[in-house]
Amino acid sequence: MTNETKQTEKVWFVTGASKGLGADLVQQLLAEGYQVAATSRTKQALIDLIGERDDFLPLNMDITDNNDVKRAIEQVVDKFGRIDVIVNNAGFSQIGAIEELTAEEVQRNYDVNVFGPLHVVRHAAPYLREQRSGHIFNIASIGGYVGNYAAFGIYCSTKFAMAGYTEALAVEMEPFGVHTTLVYPGYFRTSFLEKDSVMLPAHVIDAYANAREIEAQHLNVISGRQPNDPKKAAKALIELSNQSRPPVHFFMGIDTAVLVKDKIAIIEQALADNLELTESTAIIE
């Protein structure tokens, strides 16, 4: 059996696959001969996208429902006999200044973007540990590393949370031969910023002109003009899955490098500016 054949026998599990990056990834995987299970809130949307075929398992799954996620992963193993690559892609952006958003709006964004992927990891990990192989991709956002966007504070915080627990997950899964990659996409030309995909605040406070400006910029200027191709993102993820030592952190997109370097420079300067005060709290014995 060739190494290439072994790679295409991997079973992928992709959440949020009916549109955007998830849809492009599923289509690319099937074109390359992989076996794929994909989830959406509506199974029919996946069937409409892909059709019905033996190497494809479309699943209804509410990512916020722990038991629903457990059942979906069991269905994958029942059909394909294993599960190899997890892609936690499902998510959405709750727009709104911090003060504007209700507890329910914040909770909903966390339920989908933070607790949903944790449900997936919790129920997939036993299979990966048992077979002592696998790869978990957690799709965060460049907003999970650079968070200074007015009106996107809660969304960015969900991605910072994902980044935080993924670093620990990578260490925890390494002894079992399971790779973990945290992906920070920049702006990709998907429907992510379209008005029927993002959630706008139910209660707007007029004083937040800066939030409305950034909100309008994303919805009216950036949407549809993003500089990155989701089909190329799908190929990048597949290439990462084939690496023998894939990275824990992967910044994806032509726009990400500058943003990351700027953030690193800000942090380094903040540390340097008050280093003496930072270290002044040491106990002197």
Automatic annotation (TrEMBL):
Name of the protein this chain belongs to: SDR family oxidoreductase
Gene3D superfamilies xref list: NAD(P)-binding Rossmann-like Domain
TM region(s), chain numbering: none
Family: Belongs to the short-chain dehydrogenases/reductases (SDR) family.
Database matches in InterPro entries: NAD(P)-bd_dom_sf (IPR036291), Sc_DH/Rdtase_CS (IPR020904), SDR_fam (IPR002347), SDR_oxidoreductase (IPR051911)
PANTHER family: SHORT CHAIN DEHYDROGENASE, SHORT-CHAIN DEHYDROGENASE_REDUCTASE FAMILY PROTEIN
A molecular function GO annotation: oxidoreductase activity
Keyword vocabulary terms for this entry: Oxidoreductase
Lineage per the UniProt record: Bacteria, Pseudomonadati, Bacteroidota, Sphingobacteriia, Sphingobacteriales
One of the Pfam families matching this protein, by short name: adh_short
